[in-house]
Amino acid sequence: MFKKKEKYLLEDKEWKEKNKLYLKEVQSFLDKVDNVSDESLRQKIVSQMLRCDKVLTEIAENRFREFYELGYKNAKKE
Q: What are the tens digits of pLDDT across the range 53-64?
């Protein structure tokens, strides 16, 4: 049962895209970037934000996995 759940959690890469607050903040950021008149600068800003978002997502997913594995390990002890 736990292994099935773990596989589902690791395959569910849409956890942040389903979060309304996350979507609101991303939209707010993009709206602000639309006001940058220099197209090259706008593209660099968006690209950098996407790289930061990717790194943060990987950090969060690794933490989710660590906490899941810790919970699984502790549950097996009991």
A: 999 999 988 998
